[in-house]
Amino acid sequence: xxxxxxxxxxxxxxxxxxxxxxxxxxxxxxxxxxxxxxxxxxxxxxxxxxxxxxxxxxxxxxxxxxxxxxxxxxxxxxxxxxxxxxxxxxxxxxxxxxxxxxxxxxxxxxxxxxxxxxxxxxxxxxxxxxxxxxxxxxxxxxxxxxxxxxxxxx
Length: 154
Hints:
Layout: E1 5-14, H1 22-32, H2 34-46, H3 55-68, H4 78-89, E2 96-100, E3 103-109, H5 118-121, H6 125-138, E4 146-153
Antiparallel strand pairs: 1-3, 1-4, 2-3
Helix pairs in contact: 1-2, 1-3, 2-3
């Protein structure tokens, strides 16, 4: 039996730093991901176990939707939505969410020059940090932005 090892490395933020309050997550999704916000509202409308007149029930239902939100790669949670918000709102800058064995990060993965857009080829670390910071500021998060890696074993 052979074992596979793969590492995703690049510039970004650790998932451990990405969890503000649920109400801030909801506001973030509403602002940057209107389609997903609509999906969340549809989910909430269909929740039969929640009293939507109760703020706590509403937030619990939203939290459940956020935790269960899944991207095409099968990753779930707010880290996926955070990466998607940047992808959808920043031209040619597409960080991705990576997760394995309890460790996750939103990373603009290292690429070969021919795989990069002209915008990214000309970026400095400060430019990438400014993009991540813009979205972190909306969440009220002050976290280190820098080199990240996630290791995969299989």
